From TrEMBL:
Compositional bias ranges of the Basic residues kind: 1-20
Annotated segments matching region Disordered: 1-25
Protein name: Small lysine rich protein 1
InterPro entries according to UniProt: SMKR1 (IPR037760)
Protein's organism: Ailuropoda melanoleuca
Entry superkingdom: Eukaryota
Length: 65
């Protein structure tokens, strides 16, 4: 039966390199406007930007069902 031989493994995704995400400026005017609408106080602002204080409860990202 021609055409039926050993099949090699196909080309998979390369796991070595990940595309780099562009550097985001969290102090840009667009980011500040967005923060103005989602943060309610300074502590909330810092927590949303990733600066948490020791002992802060861990927040879950996404919507709870």
């Amino acid at each position: 039966m021609p055409g039926k031989g050993k099949r090699g493994k196909g080309q998979g995704k390369s796991r070595g390199k990940k595309p780099k995400k562009p550097e985001v400026d969290i102090l840009s005017p667009a980011a500040m406007l967005n923060l103005y609408y989602i943060a309610h106080n300074v502590a909330d602002c810092l927590q949303l930007r990733g600066f948490r204080w020791p002992g802060a409860p861990k927040s879950k990202k996404g919507k709870n069902k």
